[in-house]
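Budget justification note: compute hours in this period were largely spent on complex prediction jobs such as the one shown. Inputs:
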Amino acid sequence: MNEKRPGPVLERSEGIEHAGFKDTQEVAAIIDKYKGEIGQLISILQDIQAKLYYLPKEALVQVSETMGIPLSRVYSVATFFKAFSLKPRGRHMINVCLGTACHVRGASKLLEQIERSLKISRGETTGDFKFTLETLNCMGCCALGPVVRIDGRYFGQMSAGKVDLILNKYE
Amino acid sequence: MTFDEIRRRAISEREALEASEKPHIFIGTATCGRSAGALAVREAIKAELERRRIDAIITEVGCIGLCYAEPLVDITKSGRPRICYGNVTPEIATQLIEDYIVNDNPRPDLALGTIGDGSIEGIPKFFDLAVLKPQVRISLRNCGFIDPENINHYIARDGYSGLAKALGVSPKAVIDEVWKSGLRGRGGAGFPTARKWEFCRSAVGKEKYIICNADEGDPGAFMDRDLLEGDPHSVLEGMLIGAYAIGAAEGYIYCRAEYPLAIARLNIALRQMREYGLLGDSILGSDFSFDIRIKEGAGAFVCGEETALMMSIEGKRGMPRSRPPFPAISGLWGKPTNINNVETWADVSAILQRGGEWFASYGTEKSKGTKNFSLAGKVRCTGLIEVPMGITIRQIVYGIGGGIPGDKKFKGVQTGGPSGGCLPASALDLPVDYESLTAAGSIMGSGGMIVMDEDTCMVDMARYFLTFTQAESCGKCVPCRVGTRQMLDILERVSKGDGEPDDIEKLEKLAITVRDCSLCALGGTAPNPVLTTIRYFRDEYEAHINEKRCPALVCKALISYYILPEKCEGCGICLRDCPVEAISGGKRMVHIIDQDRCIKCGTCLDVCPPRFSAVVKVSGQHITVPEKPIPVIMSKEERVKGNGNH
Ligand SMILES: Cc1cc2nc3c(=O)[nH]c(=O)nc-3n(C[C@H](O)[C@H](O)[C@H](O)COP(=O)(O)O)c2cc1C
Ligand code: FES
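Corresponding output:
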C-alpha cells in the first residue's frame, strides 16, 4: 500500500538500543503538533502509529521523556486500546469482521480459511511481513456481511472460496 | 452574511439544479455502498458520460438504507420523477446511460421505484415499497438525498433553521421544546433528553462541555455511521442547539476510528460551518460562541460508556468510574458535561426545525418519535431503517425486512447488541418501545437488530456475546472481570459438549451477581444474552448438555460431516477442495471423510454438487460408511439389495 512502510523495523525494535531508533524527529514533530498536551496522548500515539504502523518501544520512551509523563502511564494507554500494536505489522492489513451480523453469516469460517491460507493466527503477521491478520467488531457495513477489509478496501459478502483469489492479488 | 441570505442562496442554488435540463445522477457512496462496489460504478458512469460526451450532474449521496440493493444509482431527467435503480454493476450503469439517458427507455425491469412527483409506467413509487412504507424518516430525513459534503444542500432542506429559531428564544424555551417532544436518549438507556439538559444547565460552573457519542460499539450496528456519513450537519446542528440550551462553549465528537469516512465528512462539515459563521465566535451574529473538536476512538467498546469516554478524551485509559457524581455535575475535566448519542442530536435538530409536538405525534405514550435500527443477519432486506416507536417486531422482520431468505424458519431476533437479549418467535408481536423490550428481558439499545433463523444456535450466540464482553471488560471491577470469564468458561464447555447438569443453574447465579454488582452497565448488561437465551431457548442448552447435541448444527465439537455412500458419485470435487486432505477416494470410488482429521470447516458440504447432495452434517448421530473407498457402483448395488450401509 505504501512503500514507506518500514520493513526492517523488527531489528530496530529488538535491539532495545534507544540510540538506534531513527524516527526521533518524526515523533518529535507529532508531539509538537499537539503542543505536548497531556490530554492529547491518545491522538499522539495514534499519529505515531499511523506513521510507523506500530508503536516501537523507543517511541514510547521518547513520548514519556519529552512530555514528562511516566512511561508506565504511556504504556498503560498503549496497551489498553485495541488499535495500538506494540509489535511491527505487515505491509498489508487484513481486518476480518467478527461483529454479530457477520458472525451469524459465517465470519468465523471465513477467518479460519484466511488463517489456513496465510498459515498464521489472528493477531499475527506473516514471516515475510506481507500480511497482518486482525479481527475487529463491526465496520458498519453489516448488511453486506461477512466483510473483510484489506488496507482500507472493503470486500462484502465474502466467502471462504474467494479468499485465495483475493489474497493472491496483493504483492 | 445573515442566515436569511445564506438560506436564500442555498435555496436558489437548489432550484437552479432542479430546473436544469441536464440529467442528474445520484450515486450512494457511503461505506455500505462502497463495500458493494459503488466506487467502481461511479468510475464506469463517469467514463461512459465522457465517452458519449453527455453533460450530466453527478451527486454522491449517503445511504438511503436499502443496503441489500447496493450499489444504488438514481437518475433524474428533466421534468420526470427520479428513478432509483438497485444492484447496479458497472455494466448495468453503462447500459442505463445508453438506455435511459440516450434512448429514453427507463428500464422498469432494473428500477426499484420512482421518487417525487409524476409516475413512470411499470415502476412503483419508491416510498410505497414494502420495505419503505412503514418507515418514517426524521433523523434520516436527508440521508440519500443530499450531498453530505455540501452544506448548502442541508440548508436548502431547512437545515440550521432549527438553530436560527433556538437563538431567537431563551435557552429555557429551547429545553421546553425538547420536553414537548418527549425525546429520550437513543444511545441505549433512553433517559429523557430534556431532563439531562436541565441538570447540566443548572449545574454550577462557568465552563461546560457537550459531547456527541459516536463510538457505536455494538458489533452489528451501523445507524450512527450512516447518519454521520449521509447527513453530518443534522447531528452538528443538534449539538449547537444543545450547547446553546445548556450554556456550553466547547463540544467534542467521539467517533470510533473504524469509521474513517464519517470522520472525513465531519471534518469537511466543520470547515464549512466555520466559513458560514455557524461555528466559532458569535454564531450567526448572536452572542453565542461554540466550537467542536473531533476525537477518534482507539478501539475499546467500554469507551462508549459515558464516563469511560470522557477518560479517553482526557488521554487516559478508558475506564468507567462510579456515578454519582453524574457527568452533568462533574464530567470532562471535572466540569459539567452533557453527552448524547448521534441519533439523539439529529432528532434534536428536527425537533427545533419542526416543533416538539410534531415529533411527539409519532410513537407511543412513553416512547415518542422514531428509532433507527440496523436490520441485519438472516433477513432478506438488510439495511438501515427508521420506524415509529410501537411498531411490532413482526412488521419489521416480515414487512420491512421481507422475511428470512431461503424460506428458513425464524428463530429469534437480537436487539441491543451485547447488552441486549435474544427474543423468540413468541415475541414477534411485541411493540418496539423502551418498556416492552425491557420487560421481555432485552433492551432497545442503540438499535442493532439481528435476525436469526433455524441455523443459528442460541448457545453459540450467548457464547459469542460473552466472548465479546469478556474481552472488552476493562478489568476495573471484579464482578465483570472475573464473572464474565467464569460465565464464558461454562458456555465454552457447554458448546464443546462438556457441559454438566447444573451448568444452567450456575450460569443463572453468576449472571445475577455480575448484573447487580458491576461498576458500569457493560457488566450490568453483559448477562442479558445469556439470561434471555436460557429463558427462551432452554431446550437448546439441555440438548447440548444432556445429549451432547447441537440442534442447529453450529457448535463444531458436536457436529460431524459424512459422505453418504449411496449418493456419492465419486466426482472428486470435495476430495480436491478439502483443506486438510481428510477425504480419501478416487475416480468413481465412494469418498470417505477421516473423522479424526476433519476440521469441520464445511467445505465438502458447500462444494458437493447439488444434484448429488451426498454430504450431510449431523449432530448426536452416527452414520455408518464403508471403511475404505469402494466403487460407486458397489454402494448402489448394496442400496438395491436393501442393506446400504456396512
Ligand atoms: C458499555 C457501554 C457502551 C456504550 N456504548 C455507547 C455507544 O456506542 N454509543 C452511545 O451513544 N451510547 C453508548 N452507551 C451509552 C452511554 O453511556 C450514554 O448513556 C449515552 O451516550 C447517552 O446518550 P443518550 O442519552 O443520547 O442516549 C454505552 C454504554 C455502555 C455501558
Ligand atoms: S457485523 Fe460485520 S460489518 Fe457489522
